[in-house]
Design goal:
Layout (H helix, E strand, L loop, with lengths): L8 E5 L5 E10 L5 E12 L2 H11 L7 E3 L1
Parallel strand pairs: 1-4
Antiparallel strand pairs: 1-2, 2-3
Amino acid sequence: MSRTAVRPYLVAKDEAGVFRITVRTTRFNSQGYPLVKTELLDQSFPTATRARTYLREEYRAEATDIATK
């Protein structure tokens, strides 16, 4: 298991073909292993570019904070 934190935002396409954003929060337990909490946002976007733009505007996310799947 990796001891590095995951990127805080994930943009992924769901079964319906729209893009959804997952906000991930990482904390480390006493042994140093990451514990990741995820929250799927209710909004959906037609393109990944619009989802990334939303993250930059609303959450002030940098390009290095956003992961795609």
